[in-house]
Amino acid sequence: GETYTQNGFNVSTAGIHTQTLQTIKGCDSIVNLTLSVNQSQTTNLIAEICHGETYTLNGFNVNTEGLHTQTLQTYKGCDSIINLTLTVNLPYATNIFAEICQGETYNQNGFNVSTSGTYTQFLQTTKGCDSIVNLVLTVNPTYITTYNETVCQGESYIFNGITYTADTSGRYVLNLQTVNGCDSILELNLTVIPTPIIPNNLELQLMSNYINLTWQGNGNTYVIYRNNDSLTTTTTPIYSDYDLINDQLYCYKVKSINGECKSEFSDTICTTFLDLVDISSSNISTKLYPNPANNKVKLEIEGLNEDTEVNLYDINGRKLMNKFIKANQKVLEIDISKLVKGIYNIRIENDKISISRKLIVN
């Protein structure tokens, strides 16, 4: 790009150039010029830096992306052009939203965490720049739901679509999943209440002004039905029905109750109430001694003019002993040595009278 203008030349191309001149004496003076044209040098650089860094090589001091140029000189004084094509790599930020179940650990993408929150990892890209990974972790809970239920023995209980036939109390567990795929545990604590037996040996005894009912059973309570209507509830297997009309038929049946569990009805027993001759017990005097006792007791009776039963019952109304005393018999000795400690009831009863005396066995 330059021109050589010395010694009478005016050339810009490489080669041998000649000038024919004359000396002062008029002779030829030939000047040969061998000219070299040195080329300008251009260097193209391609470089990359990370965002926030500065490129400081080869005389540059730049931190923006694009084409940057430096014009220098060779050792021969010619232009030396350096072109820098600079790429600025941006940091990568990756946001991850993840869910795990309670008790699990998230161990992907370099993380190892098990609690809800936001976590950050600083990594490097393949070009050595920052790669930031943000993890927003949600820990879904495991649900445990407990049900406490009761059922009568032998009945079926449906729990979450599964039918259990209850014979004994127990704990049943179902492992399900929530909509998030986590455990949903259902616990059933099933209490089996024994179903009482059907009352049996129902007996009706026609007394002077009432009907006496006795039966056997193991219920905590009993419901007595008269003529298919509920009459009363009692806790002992004995009941006296005084609300009667003469010459009326009465039919009785009994059901055992244990909590919410019920037995079937007993057999139905019927009798017609007939008003018997009322013999006032004030005409009869009784004395039971010793009382309390533990071996033998004596029952003294005055004013008895008919043969009469003397029955001994426990507190639940069960007949334990049956004796007879003749008309005008004054004393009846009763052996109680085989009875356990407790309260008993001695009844003097026939078709006309019913007199009760409490006995304590110690």
Chain-wise SSE layout:
Blueprint lengths: L14 E8 L5 E8 L5 E10 L15 E8 L5 E11 L2 E10 L15 E8 L5 E11 L2 E10 L3 E4 L2 E4 L4 E8 L5 E11 L6 E7 L4 E6 L4 E6 L2 E6 L3 E4 L6 E11 L2 E2 L6 E5 L11 E5 L6 E7 L5 E6 L5 E7 L5 E5 L6 E8 L4 E8 L1
Parallel strand pairs: 3-5, 6-8, 9-13
Antiparallel strand pairs: 1-2, 4-5, 7-8, 10-11, 12-13, 14-15, 15-18, 16-17, 16-19, 19-20, 19-21, 22-23, 23-26, 24-25, 24-27, 27-28
Explain what this protein looks like in three dimensions.
The protein is mainly beta and 362 residues long. The chain folds into 6 domains: 6-35, no CATH class; 41-89, no CATH class; 92-140, no CATH class; 143-193, no CATH class; 200-273, Immunoglobulins (Immunoglobulin-like, Sandwich); 281-361, Sandwich (Immunoglobulin-like). It contains no helices and 28 strands. The protein has strands at residues 15-22, 28-35, 41-50, 66-73, 79-89, 92-101, 117-124, 130-140, 143-152, 156-159, 162-165, 170-177, 183-193, 200-206, 211-216, 221-226, 229-234, 238-241, 248-258, 261-262, 269-273, 285-289, 296-302, 308-313, 319-325, 331-335, 342-349, 354-361. The strands form 9 sheets. Strands 16, 17, 19, 20 and 21 form a 5-stranded antiparallel beta sheet that branches. The protein has a 4-stranded antiparallel beta sheet with strand order 25-24-27-28, with no helix packed on it.
Summarize the structure.
The protein is mostly beta strands and 362 residues long. The protein contains no helices and 28 strands. It has strands at 15-22, 28-35, 41-50, 66-73, 79-89, 92-101, 117-124, 130-140, 143-152, 156-159, 162-165, 170-177, 183-193, 200-206, 211-216, 221-226, 229-234, 238-241, 248-258, 261-262, 269-273, 285-289, 296-302, 308-313, 319-325, 331-335, 342-349, 354-361.
